[in-house]
Specification:
heterodimer, A: Rossmann fold, nine-stranded mixed beta sheet, globular, B: mainly alpha, MetI-like fold, 86% helix, 0% strand
Amino acid sequence: MSNPSKPVRPAGAPSALEVLVRDKRFRGADGVLVHAIDEIAFDVPAGSFTTLIGPSGCGKTTTLRIILGLDDDFAGHIRLPEKEGRTAVVFQEPRLLPWRTAEDNVRLALPDAMESENLDDLFAIVGLSEMRNRYPSELSLGLARRVALARAFAIKPSLLLLDEPFVSLDEMTATRLRQLLVTVWSARRTTALMVTHNLREAVQLSDRIVFLTERPARIRGVEVIDRDRSARDADWRERTVRDLDRRYSGVL
Amino acid sequence: MAVEAESAETESRLHRLASRGWAPKALTFVSLLGLLAIWWIAAIIADSRVLPAPPAVLDALHRDAVTGELWFNLAMTLMRVFFAFVTAMVIGSAIGIALGMSASANRFFDPWLILFLNIPALVVIVLAYIWFGLNEVAAIGAIAVNKIPNVVVTMREGARALDPQLAEMAKVYRFGRAKTLRHVILPQLQPYFAAASRSGLALIWKIALVVELLGRSNGVGFQIHLYFQLFDVAAILAYTLAFVVVMLLIEFLLVQPLEARSTRWRPKRA
């Protein structure tokens, strides 16, 4: 039997992001040492959309933070797609600067070389053309998330990380935003890794889904979804979710 | 019928006035008028040299304004307030932010801070004059030293309250040092800076008067000391009021517009 944690690499696609994290522990707020990750190893092929899914508190966000370089206290290694490339992130919270307008929030993230970049298309595609001069306090959570998405795509990243970007939105807004993400991502294709605990969301958006176990996290399996996104109708989605749910029962 | 129409018109006019922002200002005016009335009535009842009525104070004000003495002394005090304020804000902010960011530095210097917070202003002033002589630098330094610990405490709170989430965002999006300081850190410290300046100005000018009383030969504090020896309460009140008016002008013409500008992104309270 093959080691389920061994990276699965589809033929022909060069891996863009390689992640290996072993034995990650951290001290919780109550001072107790938490063994968050046993061993997680996976690849994200270039230009693909991969989703990391698992139960709450299984180290998904920790993995993202390690990839982002916000946590360097771990064993293992991370190989980013391009050495000089930029990594963009959409956090669980929009994390906008409240004292800057929506447009300034996006513009401030731009590298110096792109400073005067025309952002009209980007704002149009995320549906914020009318909101560019609003302050974050004047935006709903859904709109603020759009700004965060715009900021992430604006820097033309070689890697895009998304940490439960649609959590705590009402279902209608979340659905609209997921479609929006597919649209923007298709237009400005980049290697993407999303963390979620919503299987329906994962099935709708991903090329590959990496299932994690409970804490301390290991990889339970990797599913490749090669159906075209436009062909993923509600029926197919429900069937796939049911099927995955049965095979990975207890994961979520 | 006509009365009704008229009252409706008055009401709408009042409403327009309120929407233009005049109603709150009118209220402030009425409130100040009330204070003046209380003073005047008390002066009439007391009927004594120690509590002169407003016209007597106005007289004293006019007397010193004509000779130019009032303006000169106001300017001297204002100069000391200005330099002490700038010194205290710069040094206090730097120390406060450093302590807020480093837990170990804070643990080490916290006892010092408590000590300085509790040294009476008078002691600092007297020691400054003894050690550095009766000069301008000692005077301004003494005022600043009295204020610095308060600025440190406020700015330390500000530095502690910095949002780590925004710092992470700035790191991932490679803001760099200058951009992070200007767009992420300083705006978060702004309310603390404003609070420190506010309480700072009020405290500093009060201490400045004591400094002048003890070791300078001009300024509002010196004049008040002089009129105290002459037992001229009207002149004492005249100088006090003149300086309060100056400070109010600074507040309304400088501090508040600046603050309104730097907080324009905040949601307006309904």
